[in-house]
Amino acid sequence: PMTLSSPNMLRSIIRLGCPGKVDFNSLCQTAADEFVSQKASTIIPCVLLDLSVCSARGANTNSVDKRDRYLDEVAKSCVVGNISRMMKGHIHDIYSFILPMMHCGVQERCPLREKANEVMVFLNQFPNIGHRHAVRNAHLVVEGILHQYGRNIWYNSDVRITKAACIQATEFFTTNILKKEYKKCNGLFHCAGTSTTECMLHTRFLLEKASNSLEKSRIWNMIEIMMYEVKSHACVNGSKNSQLGFCINSLLSMCVDKRHDDIQYKIIATLNDVLEAVTEDYNYIRQNEEEIICVLNKVVITMIQITETCEKDMIDFCLAEWKRETFEMIKSMSYEGIFKSKHCEDNMLDLLRFAVEKFGSHIPEDITDCHTIAFKVLELLLHKKKEMLHYELNSYLDPFPESSIPNDHMKILLTLDSNCNCHVRNLLSIFQNSLESSVPTDFISEAKRLSSIAERYITSKPWTRPMNSNSTSSKDEIMHNDLDTRTLLSGINRVEKSLETSVNSYDIEKEPPNNVEIISSIVHNLCSFCDSKYPDDVKVAASSCLGILVSALHNMDMDMEEVIYQNPENCVDFNKNPL
Predict the structure, then answer these.
(1) pLDDT in the model for residue 373
(2) Which of 13, 54, 82, 489 is the most exposed place for a label (fewest CB within 10 A)?
(3) Which residues have CB under 8 Å from 79's CB, separation 6+?
């Protein structure tokens, strides 16, 4: 038992040797007690369930006495005094085991249900243990049910814990034990004594601590059932407090976290299912515009980032395979292959085309699957539901970030069968053109949008995030990959283009106070982004846009001093800051 409960103590004993005065029987008993104490949340329900089988079958008339004896041993190991006190402290663990079993199986007389009901009858033998102890720890019961589903338990060879059983178990706990009416609460988890936010934060904390893929898979099962319930509640009840926006934000933050690449496809697939269900009801979207529409902007930008990352991974994989094959040919002295590879190496496009044609079919499925499912999310929002979300997305959507992959490389990559139907750039271009044709953009509208992006960028402070010491990428390259940084660069470029096309023909005197204040804010932000603390790409783009803006204002005979000092609190002291 010491290998499970006290491995450090066992390691010390092995290292120091075995002195004759050590009482190994006592040591073994101590280690066993520690193990039972650590795993009591699982051992106690298993003791109750295992011995209830004997009672149900009638094979042993003293099964209840044996159960008392085993529980008494567990109580002694846990140093809690007696069985009743121990059961009070673990009543939430027992309920989290028993309640899902009461809703498993499709047969009317399911053995699992009979075992669970028998345990509930056994608990009634303890007068000091009642539902009130479970009510006090209602949130622990809900978390325990989520953990049971995450572990993917098989009760026997035919029946396993299911998503529906966990939802029904939580509803049963709410209506029959907590005595609450589910329809009057903001979601099932809120009615059960906790909240969706609390459960999501709890699972995110566990996910950050997970050390292997099995633990991540179990924790992801917990998140999946939570999203299933949130989606169902949002679609059926149309509540304004479903906390769906917070859950989507959490999924997006997990998507871009490199530590969770092994479950990235599952995250995006769940996100796609949720968005498909939510966008079916236009009335729900309008009622929850502040919660849903605002987060769709981040969904679009994140999916663009993921598709571009996958495309880069495809190119890198093909080139890496080409280098590996070239090295093998050099080793085998295949002169014909070396000549062909040398010819391709002189032309990067020919090299990439050759690599994609030969190794494109061997690209790992996890890359192509993530690219496909991320494209489906973009297609849903920007094409299939474009009419429904047109007005809302135009109001909240940030400028699309410019791709860092050259167009010639993308044309070659589109020759792949797995990628030919997922033309992200074409989809974005069509949507952007439809927006501009219906709602023409001018300098003032682009300036307003840039002000909003700049405020968010300064607040998020992506340039202060620490770099990975093991990474070989430069600081500016890491910054450029940040979502907020890329969005800011795109916003600055759009303002610069609008200056070249619309400022000269724009009647600035239509709303002088308003427009001057907006221009003053843009000047202040652009000057701020010229500071040395920002990435080089941002400094170059801001200084270029600032120069064009000052030149345009000069051509319009505007008083620069009036523009600069429109907002005294945001004023830039040009005497101290020549930039």
Answers:
(1) 92
(2) 82
(3) 33, 37
